[in-house]
């Protein structure tokens, strides 16, 4: 598990940080997601796991945005120490 950035990834699809993810497809935080394909908040979700917004997600487990995720559990972004 590699974590580089503000939003950390713990587990297969879980993110604990500013835009928090609890569970496989659930997000609880500033940009909230409730349910498999439902979106409530600023950043909208299109499709099963896709997000287009400030912290963008393209594909099943990939994130391209401010705190970027490439691959299953990897985060590449600004390192906060």
Helix coverage percent: under 10%
- Main sheet? 2 strands, antiparallel
Shape: globular
Number of helices: 0
Tell me the span between the first and last alpha carbons. 17 Å
Overall number of domains: 1
Low-confidence stretches: 1-5, 9-17, 19-53, 55-65, 67-81
The helix-strand sequence is EEEEEEEE
Overall pLDDT score: 47
Sheet with most strands: strand arrangement: 1-2
Count of strand segments? 8
Structural class comes to mainly beta
Please give the radius of gyration in angstroms. 11 Å
Q: How much of the residues is beta strand, in percent? A: 15-25%
Q: What are the salient characteristics of this protein?
A:
0% helix; 81 residues; two-stranded antiparallel sheet; mainly beta; two-stranded antiparallel ribbon; disordered C terminus
Question: Could you walk me through the main structural features you see in this protein, from its secondary elements to its overall organization?
Answer:
By secondary structure, the protein is mostly beta strands. It has one domain (1-81). It is built from no helices and eight strands. It has strands at 8-9, 15-16, 44-45, 51-52, 55-57, 63-65, 68-69, 75-76. The strands form four sheets. It has a two-stranded antiparallel sheet with strand order 1-2. A two-stranded antiparallel sheet has the order 3-4. Strand 7 (68-69) and strand 8 form a beta hairpin. The chain is globular and about 35 Å long. It starts with 7 loop residues before the first strand and ends in a 5-residue tail after the last strand. The relative contact order is 0.23.
């Amino acid at each position: 598990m590699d974590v580089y950035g503000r939003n950390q990834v713990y587990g297969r699809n879980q993110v604990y940080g500013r835009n928090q993810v609890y569970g496989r497809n659930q997000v609880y935080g500033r940009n909230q997601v409730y349910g498999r394909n439902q979106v409530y908040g600023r950043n909208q979700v299109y499709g099963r796991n896709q997000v287009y917004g400030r912290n963008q997600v393209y594909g099943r487990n990939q994130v391209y945005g401010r705190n970027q995720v490439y691959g299953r559990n990897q985060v590449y972004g600004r390192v906060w120490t």
